[in-house]
Amino acid sequence: MRILGIDYGSKRLGVSLSDEDEILASPLPVHIRTRLAEDLSFLAHLTHDQKVGRIVLGLPLNMNGSQGEMARAVQEFADELRHACKVPVILFDERLTTSEAERVLIQADISRKKRKNLRDGLAAVLILQGYLDSQRARIEDHDT
Hints:
It contains 4 helices and 5 strands, in the order βββαβαβαα.
C-alpha cells in the first residue's frame, strides 16, 4: 500500500508518496493552494490514482507540545480530507520539519529562490519518512 504525506500550508501543500513497501518517501510536485474544494479534489484524485491507503498529515505542534492556531487549522483540514479521500488520515508531529528542510537545502547550496519551491516538498518527505521509520521501529520492537 502507498502512503501519502502532506506538509500543510496556507499557500502550498508539500506532497510526498511512499513506495508500496512503505520504506521510502519521495517528493511529488508542490500543490499551490486555490480553494479548499479544489485542493481536496486534487488530493482525492491523487489518492485514487496512486492507490493510496493512508494519508499522513503533518501536525505543527508548538515546541512544548501544545496546539496553536495552525495545528487547529490542520485538524480541520484532516477532517475534510478524510471525507474527500475516504482513507484514514493520521496526524503526525512535524515539529521542525520545515526548518530541517531549509537547513538541508542550504547545505546543498540551493539558491534562496529555488529553496522556496523545494522546501515544502522536502518537508512532506521528512514528515512521511519520519512516520514510516516510526512504524518500522514499532514493528521491530514488537518482534523482539
